[in-house]
Amino acid sequence: MEVRLLDARQREAAAALWEACGLTRPWNDPRADFDRAASADNAAVLGFCEGPALLGTVMVGEDGHRGWVYYLAVAPAARGAGLGAQLMAAAEAWLQERGLPKLNLMVRTENKAVIAFYTAQGYALSEVTVLQKSL
């Protein structure tokens, strides 16, 4: 088992995993997110499979200045075995191969367990405010 690049064949499985893990929101179409990343030169969806089963994903991308991670998900039955850390290491390696010096990610403020996970992986809180505008 290893982390590998996903393609359109894993789109539905990835979207189902993201939904099962509570990562989707009504205003974001996870299938469109997958398609954009999987077809871009500056992004990818990485996955951890066991046979035909998709156990984990991470979407990674870069904007030329820094990398970004989205949709880190591990199937509930597969949690606690270090898959999340392996997926993050793969995302970091993907960015390092492209010469990116920094990785950013966003976590909902109330999601203390996920903040603790990332803190344990060496991530620190940034004193920034994220602003958004729907287009």
Structure notes:
α1 crosses α2 (30-39). The protein is of the alpha+beta class. β4, α3 (83-97) and β5 form a beta-alpha-beta unit. Strands 1-2-3-4-5 form a 5-stranded mixed beta sheet, sandwiched between helices. The chain contains 4 helices and 5 strands; from the N terminus they run βααβββαβα.
Core attributes:
globular, alpha+beta, 24% strand, 5 strands, 135 residues, 5-stranded mixed beta sheet, 33% helix
Write the layout of secondary structure elements.
Elements: E1 3-5, H1 11-20, H2 30-39, E2 43-50, E3 53-62, E4 67-74, H3 83-97, E5 103-105, H4 112-120
Parallel strand pairs: 4-5
Antiparallel strand pairs: 1-2, 2-3, 3-4
Mean pLDDT: 95
Strand line-up of the largest beta sheet: 1-2-3-4-5
Q: What is the general shape? A: globular
Low-confidence stretches: none
Radius of gyration: 14 Å
Structural class: alpha+beta
What's the total number of strands? Answer: 5
Name the helix and strand elements from N-terminus to C-terminus, one letter apiece: EHHEEEHEH
The number of helical runs is: 4
Query: What fraction of residues sit in β-strands?
Result: 15-25%
Helix content: 25-40%
| Terminal Cα span | 39 Å
User: How is the biggest beta sheet arranged?
Assistant: 5 strands, mixed
Brief summary of the model shown:
The chain is an alpha+beta fold. Helices cover 33% and strands 24% of the residues. It has helices spanning 11-20, 30-39, 83-97, 112-120, and strands spanning 3-5, 43-50, 53-62, 67-74, 103-105.
